[in-house]
Amino acid sequence: MKRFPNIYTYSLYLFRTSYPTTMELDHRPPLDYVTVKTTLPFYPLPPNGDRKPFRTERLSMRPMTEDDLGFLNALRSEPEGMIWSSQGCADKDIEQTKKSHALRMPPNDVKGYDWVVCLPETGEPIGMGGTGMWSGELGWPAVGYQFLKAHWGKGYASEFLKGFLAQWWSLPRNEVEISVDKNTIRGAGDGDGDVKEECVSAITVDSHSASQKVLKKCGMEFATAWTETDVRDRTQQVTLHGFFVRKGKDMPISLPLPSLLATATGITGSAWASGCIASMSLAGIPAVLQLSAPNSVTVWQEIFNRGIALMPKVAVTTALAYAYASYSAYQEGRKWKGLAAGGALTVAIVPFTLIFMSSTNDLLFKAAAGTLEASQEDVAKLIGRWGVLNLVRSMLPLAGTIVGLSTVFQSL
């Protein structure tokens, strides 16, 4: 059974999760610890040179390089982000940043699992994150992140963390014996020595609600809270919150109410539009064809007028709902292209009508006005053709519904 050495390194993230890689027992908070058998990635961790970059919907992650010193200095010079770190303030100068940079480069890279977060289109680094602490306050590896202030509020934190956790769980593992906070193994048998499901932890200040929301979006649960001296003002005490997530736990889908309503409106609207349009062809047109001219074309015109008065409005409203839902999904780092496609497919009934059905509509209007020289059989064929084209048109919002639903299910 492998036990881990007391190896000190140093790292800072937005959460209060920093090196040393293994916290000294006398520095641990006053929590209730138990010894458990579990699994963890092989230690030392893979060096930077062996780490393959990975991607999420909007982000690409790569190991840190020597050229990242300037970026790291910019990141660690922002007081708005560093105030939430275990350092509690921005770096004083480039020399302080160099120390942090060196501890993420060989030979120290194997003591943590850090990644530079970039925009894939340009390669621009915008943040960093990973497991900076092998054994944190809760006893488990501790994860964290930090982003440049210019990129806050775009959902990058939760997107990175979800992608990182998947990468972390994929590392080769071995069985270990460690001491962890009892709250992280609740519900899984609380006795010392029991084999427990592996966890990852994160620590955040109690007032940092934004980080706590990110953790919960990524499936993390609150474990416990404790107080200690605040590094930002050592005359004060600060309350810290510990969170954890178990290996194999599915990421929850958590939508803000406006996004949830927009998604539901878009999917419901496109499904309703498809059914309404299809019913004209499947139920209305067969009934119309049972009538003789001019009654048949008169009833067809009534069906058409009702549809033209309603369906464009439904299509536009549905498309707007899809547009908002896809934009929200993009901002939150969820899959969004299917929602955008759902809106485009629904509103596509308008150009489809103009391109493929206008000539048939014009002939039927002339027949209704009595200005078309055509037999009753010819009029019936026109109505039948309109029914077929209209049925094809109904497939557009149906496809939008399928694509929209598929996108939502892929996010579950």
UniProtKB/TrEMBL annotation:
Keyword Transcription: no
N-acetyltransferase domain mapped to chain residues: 58-221
UniProt record similarity statement: Belongs to the anthrone oxygenase family.
Statement: the UniProt record of this protein carries the keyword Cell membrane: no
Protein location: Membrane
MF-aspect GO terms: acyltransferase activity, transferring groups other than amino-acyl groups
Domain of life of the source: Eukaryota
Membrane topology summary: Multi-pass membrane protein
Main location: membrane
Protein name in UniProt: N-acetyltransferase domain-containing protein
Pfam families in UniProt: Acetyltransf_3, Anthrone_oxy
InterPro entries from the UniProt entry: Acyl_CoA_acyltransferase, Anthrone_oxy, GNAT_dom
TM region positions: 257-283, 303-324, 336-357
Keywords, ordered alphabetically: Membrane, Transmembrane, Transmembrane helix
A GO-annotated cellular component: membrane
Species classification: Eukaryota, Fungi, Dikarya, Ascomycota, Pezizomycotina
Positions in coiled-coil regions: none
